[in-house]
Amino acid sequence: MINVAVLVSGGGTNLQAIIDAVNSGKITNSKLSVVISNKDDAYALERAKINGIESKLIRKKDYSTLEEYGEAMIECLDSYNVDLVVLAGFLVILPENLVKHFEGRMMNIHPSLIPSHCGPGYYGLKVHEKVLERGNKVTGATVHFVNEIADDGAIISQKAVEVLDDDTPEVLQKRVMEQAEWNILPQAIDDFANGRLKLEGNIVKHI
């Protein structure tokens, strides 16, 4: 049984998908030990409370340096003996010390097919707005391990989603979540928890 931490800044729709997958048995060998947010008004904290999961508020603005913020995050995560950190809409630049501490044990979900529409400034509805501006016919979501560069870590899995002519950013966002994000993120967590994937160098090994 591994201990999983979920880091989230907003409503927590991907957190809910993870909770539902644990409850339904889609994710096995895993305990959701703690939910951490950087925003005190994040509905994700309420989702954690409703589901009996411990939660913590750790705000970057409360620390004088990014390194100190990273140390606080590490201390909290280690206190729960966390084996896997999942970024599920966590809109914070990650401190290098935090990333290194959880190298190969931290994954992120991004709402596009990396390397398209990713990197600094690409989050939330902004991703889907850019997809529509570019005229892409296909988009999707990507689960990847985290390194020091935004959306640059080794790709674990991707799932494509069709872009329709009458899509708005909001409609497309919902379809990407339902058809891609809520499927591939729980699967990646289950694979990690059961030893079916690991990071070797910058290559993901599926076992």
Task: Please tell me about this protein's structure.
The protein has six helices and nine strands, in the order βαβαβαβαβαββαββ. The strands form two sheets. A seven-stranded mixed β-sheet has the order 3-2-1-4-5-6-7, covered by helices on one side. Strands 8-9 form a two-stranded antiparallel ribbon. With 207 residues, the protein is α/β, with parallel strands linked by helices. It starts with a strand and ends with a strand. The chain has one domain (2-206): 3-Layer(aba) Sandwich (Rossmann fold), CATH 3.40.50.170. The mean pLDDT is 95. It is globular, with a radius of gyration of 16 Å. Helix 2 (43-50) links the parallel strand 2 and strand 3. Helices cover 36% and strands 25% of the residues.
What does the secondary structure layout of this molecule look like, with pairings?
Layout: E1 2-7, H1 13-24, E2 30-37, H2 43-50, E3 54-57, H3 66-79, E4 84-87, H4 96-101, E5 106-110, H5 125-134, E6 138-145, E7 155-162, H6 169-193, E8 197-200, E9 203-206
Parallel strand pairs: 1-2, 1-4, 2-3, 4-5
Antiparallel strand pairs: 5-6, 6-7, 8-9
